[in-house]
Amino acid sequence: MNILVVGGGGREHAIIKKLKESKKVQKIFALPGNGGMASDAECVNIGAKDIEKIVDFALKNAVDYAVVAPDDPLVLGCVDALEEKGIPCFGPRANAAIIEGSKVFSKRLMRKYGIPTAKYEVFDEKEKALSYLDSAPLPAVIKADGLALGKGVIIAPTREEAKQAVEDMMGAHKFGASGDRIVVEEFLEGPEVSVLAFTDGKTVKPMVSSMDHKRALDGDKGLNTGGMGTVAPNPYYTEAVAKECMERIFLPTIGAMNAEGRPFKGCLYFGLMITKDGPKVIEYNCRFGDPETQVVLPLLESDLLEIMLAVTEERLAGTEVRFSDKHAACVIMASEGYPGSYEKGFEITVPDELREKVFFAGAALKDGKTVTSGGRVLGVTEKADSLEEAIEKAYSDVERIHFKNAFYRKDIGQRALKAGK
Ligand code: AMP
Ligand code: GLY
Questions:
Q1: Which residues contact 421 (CB under 8 A, 6 or more apart)?
Q2: What pLDDT, in 10s, does the model give residues 266-276?
Q3: Whole-prediction pTM value?
């Protein structure tokens, strides 16, 4: 089969590497992909949001199946557009991708169907939000309704900061139309767990759990990023917690989407917080997480393409989704300065024997060399029998990969290690 993967980050590289293991796969196109993954897929310079061009490319290149990985094209209806032309896809249609595309939608869904989440209020007028914040509990969590590149959530410890966040979103339109409506919600506490789940709208098959490290600096300090590293499985996701999540969150969410006439097919990402009152949903994403995918898929033992096809054809119940019981750790190497401004264009050197363990994100090809072109440059994933060993191996790989201004957290997985003790 000829497969098209929409997207160009580390997550897409991890998906592509896994798909390559499938006997059915003949050719993989990545739109746009990135220079670092050029040996694994044919990268075509079409942007992930350029839906018309994506459809046109798929039709002209005998694409049999498309995997739409990032949130933007999913929310914009890339799957709908491809399916309309007869190309089967992995990923939700726009009317289901709204579960990530609108926080107001997802909060209302959870309230309506009794799915545990933080208490909240919705505002579409700045003045009302500001006056609510005069007496709201602190810290206050302010969220832009729409997509905001993962930057639309502000945790404000003081009233001044909370009000500033509202001014930025609703007054200065920092996130464009995404901030015209906001959610103000209760601050929850507890360890966070990411669970990605395959679902065909009938059956849910969760993947191995994982833990992200969102802050830029060691000790969970500094600015929020797209994620600086991940480990899997997440030690806080015990069997008892998993059972509770399945009964109170996963199945009710799939049922709720069906009841709303928005069946969700694809990978549904549950961002969970394990509070003292049990697991609660922090956020839904309509896609694989990045960099969660870089630890989850390397642990997948079943054929990814077979699972994806089963999701599309709504026969997931009869399809095996098996994970190894090993541990995985992924360390992201970024450009110094990320998530703020940074320099790019520096040559990246990766020893040949590490190539299979590296997932490229902000990398480009220039004069036959791989160079840095983004904030998160690449991720290195190692697997081992223990988490400790996986972390150690990943960091020893990092020492052997070089580019100017490389920056990475030194403590990926440390919190998870402590949880087990
Ligand atoms: P999100 O973009 O919704 O994943 O939010 C980004 C991060 O903000 C999450 O991973 C949490 O660490 C944090 N966060 C979001 N909502 C809450 C909340 N209600 N209480 C505490 N932390 C939160
Ligand atoms: N790593 C968080 C996300 O993919 O949204």
A1: none
A2: 999 999 999 99
A3: 0.97
The conformation of residue 157, written as its DSSP 8-state character, comes to: S
For CA atoms 64, 69, 75, 76, the dihedral sign is: negative
Q: In terms of CATH architecture, what is 2-93?
A: 3-Layer(aba) Sandwich (3.40)
Give the pLDDT confidence score for residue 152 in this predicted structure.
87
The CATH architecture to which 327-419 belongs is Alpha-Beta Complex (3.90)
Q: Residue 378 pLDDT > 80, yes or no? A: yes
Phi, psi of 191 (to 5 degrees): -65, 145
Task: Write the DSSP symbol of residue 210.
Answer: B
- Going by alpha carbons, the residue nearest to atom 5 of ligand 2 is 289
Ligand at shortest distance from the CA of 138 = 1
Among 3.90.226.10, 3.30.1490.20, 3.60.21.10, 3.30.70.270, name the CATH number for the domain at 119-186: 3.30.1490.20
Q: Which residues line ligand 1 (CB under 6 A)?
A: 118, 141, 150, 153, 155, 185-188, 192, 214, 271, 282-283
- pLDDT tens sequence across 316-367: 999 999 999 999 999 999 999 999 999 999 999 999 999 999 999 999 999 9
Domain ranges (residues) in the chain: 2-93, 119-186, 192-318, 327-419
Distance of alpha carbon 372 from alpha carbon 374, whole angstroms: 6
Q: What is the pLDDT of residues 151-210, one digit of tens each?
A: 789 999 999 999 999 999 999 999 989 989 999 999 999 999 999 999 999 999 999 999
Distance (angstroms) between ligand 2 centre and the Cα of 290 equals 5
The answer to whether 132 and 125 have CB atoms below 8 angstroms apart is no
